[in-house]
């Protein structure tokens, strides 16, 4: 489809067609977003830069479960250009950080890193964008400034409006100039329809691996066997190399890795560590999941990061917990992204006392 000029009406129709193939109709809020995305999709192939008028990007935000990522996917598949790139922001920022490190001795290291990763791209789609860490925020500001200066049009999805980025009141003011630049450079579009589509198979095909995961409590041996898990023996305990660091695993069996919560979330770990491990293992078991009120803020946030990454990498997740999910995700000082994390964990089947095997939910 590269090079094909598509008018706004035809582009919008393709969203409706994709929805019907997946077994649903677009709701009113989604139709409003489709109108703006169709306009952008029609403008991209007509842009002849650097002298033509650059299409204005879109910052699409709203609560979890409203279909932001699905709309981005359909847009990306439909827009008729080869000069496009879609990526989860976690993944891109890890790649960018590595490229920036390679060029850090150069005066314009950020620009060199962007050119290395995005040379010749005109459209960049960032899914699940957020800014929580003050240290990352400054580098993200420089990244976005470079993207704007290089006239790369952005489509961004987020659970937060621009002024909700870096929400910590101690640091928020540091990111305000970038928030203002985002609002000047992009159209901020909210998707906040009344319907929550969590649990729906947006593709119309089989469920993802993540959706076939299981939440088990309290995790008796018989419950674990019912869902196909065998409790690790002491002899299976191993240490895995993750970059220049190491992490203890209760077991590593082919493409399955089994961690204790405190080893994977209550020690100094970065999202890069989790991305490396998610690339190595497609099935994860995390046992000993405590109530959030019993652990510190950093451990809770790392757990949120793990869930995000495993869901986005389409890994299968088994959680062995001390209590039902609503009790685990309770208390003060919850992660900023707790709504999204609860949404994603609600996709898992549940096995609890008196319910020996509910590991395979019906689709539909």
Automatic annotation (TrEMBL):
<keyword id="KW-0547">Nucleotide-binding</keyword>
<dbReference type="GO" id="GO:0005524">
    <property type="term" value="F:ATP binding"/>
</dbReference>
<dbReference type="GO" id="GO:0016887">
    <property type="term" value="F:ATP hydrolysis activity"/>
</dbReference>
<dbReference type="InterPro" id="IPR005654">
    <property type="entry name" value="ATPase_AFG1-like"/>
</dbReference>
<dbReference type="Pfam" id="PF03969">
    <property type="entry name" value="AFG1_ATPase"/>
</dbReference>
<dbReference type="GO" id="GO:0005737">
    <property type="term" value="C:cytoplasm"/>
</dbReference>
<keyword id="KW-0067">ATP-binding</keyword>
<dbReference type="GO" id="GO:0032153">
    <property type="term" value="C:cell division site"/>
</dbReference>
<dbReference type="GO" id="GO:0051301">
    <property type="term" value="P:cell division"/>
</dbReference>
<dbReference type="InterPro" id="IPR027417">
    <property type="entry name" value="P-loop_NTPase"/>
</dbReference>
<protein>
    <submittedName>
        <fullName>AFG1 family ATPase</fullName>
    </submittedName>
</protein>
């Amino acid at each position: 489809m590269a090079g094909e000029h598509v008018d706004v009406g035809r582009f919008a129709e393709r969203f409706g067609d994709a929805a019907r193939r997946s077994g649903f109709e677009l709701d009113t809020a989604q139709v409003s977003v489709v109108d703006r995305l169709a306009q952008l999709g029609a403008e991209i192939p007509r842009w002849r830069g650097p002298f033509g008028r650059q299409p204005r990007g879109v910052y699409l935000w709203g609560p979890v479960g409203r279909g932001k990522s699905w709309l981005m996917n359909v847009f990306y598949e439909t827009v008729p250009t080869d000069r496009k790139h879609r990526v989860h922001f976690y993944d891109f920022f890890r790649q960018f950080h590595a490229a920036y490190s390679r060029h850090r001795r150069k005066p314009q290291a950020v620009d060199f890193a962007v050119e290395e990763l995005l040379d010749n791209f005109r459209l960049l789609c960032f899914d699940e964008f957020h800014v929580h860490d003050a240290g990352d925020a400054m580098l993200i500001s420089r990244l976005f400034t470079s993207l704007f200066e290089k006239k790369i049009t952005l489509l961004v999805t987020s659970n937060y409006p621009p002024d909700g980025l870096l929400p910590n009141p101690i640091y928020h003011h540091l990111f305000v100039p970038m928030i203002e630049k985002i609002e000047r450079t992009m159209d901020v579009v909210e998707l906040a329809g009344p319907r929550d589509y969590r649990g729906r198979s947006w593709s119309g095909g089989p469920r993802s691996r993540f959706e076939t995961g299981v939440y088990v409590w309290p995790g008796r041996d018989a419950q674990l066997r019912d869902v196909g898990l065998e409790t690790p023996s002491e002899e299976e305990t191993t240490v895995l190399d993750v970059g220049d660091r190491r992490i203890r695993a209760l077991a590593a069996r082919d493409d399955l890795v089994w961690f204790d919560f405190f080893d994977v979330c209550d020690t100094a770990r970065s999202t890069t560590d989790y991305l490396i491990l998610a690339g190595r293992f497609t099935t994860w078991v995390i046992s000993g999941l405590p109530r959030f009120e019993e652990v510190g803020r950093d451990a809770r946030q790392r757990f949120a990061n793990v869930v995000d990454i495993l869901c986005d990498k389409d890994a299968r997740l088994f959680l062995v917990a001390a209590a039902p999910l609503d009790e685990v995700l309770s208390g003060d000082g919850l992660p900023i992204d707790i709504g999204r994390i609860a949404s994603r964990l609600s996709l898992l089947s549940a096995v609890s006392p008196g319910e020996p095997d509910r590991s395979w939910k019906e689709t539909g």
